[in-house]
Request: fold
Amino acid sequence: MSTNLELVTLPEAARITGKTPHNIRDYLQRQRIGKYNHQGELIERARSGELRVSLKELQTFLSMIEQGIDKHHQAGLHPELGFHQVSESQRTKHVHRLHPYLGKFIPQLVEWFLSRYFKPNQVILDPFMGSGTTLVQGNEMKMHTIGIEISPFNCLIAQVKTQPYDLPKVSAEILEIEQHLTEFSKSLATPTKKLEQFKKKLLADCQSDYLNTWFAPNALLEMWYYRHLIPGYQYQDLLRVLLSRAVRSSRLVPHYDLATPKQSLPVGQPYWCRKHQRYCTPIDNCQSKIHAYSADTVRRLMEFDSLRSNRMVKIFQGDSRQVNLKRELVNTPLANRLIDGVFTSPPYVGQIDYHDQHRYAYELFGFPRQDSLEVGPKKRGKSKLAQQEYVEGIAEVFQNVLPWIKPKGKILVVANDRFQLYPDIAKLSGLTIVEQFQRAVTKRTEQGDDPYQETIFLMMKKN
Ligand SMILES: C[S@@+](CC[C@H](N)C(=O)[O-])C[C@H]1O[C@@H](n2cnc3c(N)ncnc32)[C@H](O)[C@@H]1O
Reply:
């Protein structure tokens, strides 16, 4: 067998060896099998873009395990923090999947740390709140939570996840608006003069080139129709998030690329789908996604409702380097209370543009964008200068919030510190790194296939 022929994708390797693709990603992450060939070069990905491994190397490794001559866990990686047994549905349980979000950590990671370092009724801050995972999990564990986040759409997702609902009313609203949409969709099949006039009027204020490019004509009409119905309901923010989720799935983007679209042109004809391993047809409507997510949303809200506590959840949209927590909390039950600790995951240097990943929602609703205030965005890259700006930006956030945190408060920060910036960040912020936990990241909420390693820094204020 030539060297090239021996390279297989993870699903192929899984099929041949009787393991799962997750197992193999895990072996890669733990460096039990290599990402490099005999020449020391990075193994080329398959044409489809999927990671590949050497089948021979994998089989040798598996036979070593069978003979008991291999140590499964590479020294240094915390055995409990891989969460290898946690299924996809558990990682995205209840409200955590009301809307996808690239860069989320899993609730099980939050739970592990909150249960060890904090108690019910304490106050936890997440100054890089994202979609609110810390807030949801903290609330479930009877803790008060505060989140700060620069992206207005992320704040909307977190708000919708954490607010209490009148569930019968929510169900009725979601069902009714969906019924209106279904009738409208049906009417599109029989064009009339009246319908044509209505369509023209409906789309008159859809000025977005992005929306006009990335959706099939009927999908655009349906989403715009749903959008125009929202002001007639009580739970408008929830309906906006539900619609955004459907719109995300209705883009003319290949299924395997929905999280980070790479193509510059909409997909126009059936294509080979890496995700589903078959030919998929570009979606021509939005209604089917609304239908799927309507029932799913109600089910998720009901599930969280049975777990949630009545502790405070406060969300502030703004730049964590600037937000004045004392002033923001003044008229709330959390005023005059110091915060017990932080659990957060700042952006990784040059990895994600957090506003841009939800571009469809910004274009759909016209929310104001504050991209330029993101710390460490992808568009700034990973250069030395970008790293320096990142260090200063993250340190400014800690300097800004530390005065409101108890002297012995625990600051837990989840980071992929491949550039080893956190010692400098800690120093600049007036923090001491007390402990570091290393964890293998093979299972994320948004499936990517590049395994990596994360560090959770436990820090405390310097005396
Ligand atoms: C890694 S994500 C956090 C994800 C979160 N843990 C979750 O599970 O959803 C980092 C977040 O920091 C936000 N962010 C970046 N710069 C910020 C700033 N200056 N102030 C507040 N938030 C910021 C980004 O918009 C992004 O949502």
Observations:
- The chain has three domains: 7-66, 79-152+308-461, 167-250+285-302.
- The chain has a mean pLDDT of 90.
- Residues 101, 103-105, 128, 130-131, 133, 148-151, 154, 319-321, 345-347, 354, 373-375 surround S-adenosylmethionine (CB under 6 Å).
- The radius of gyration is 24 Å.
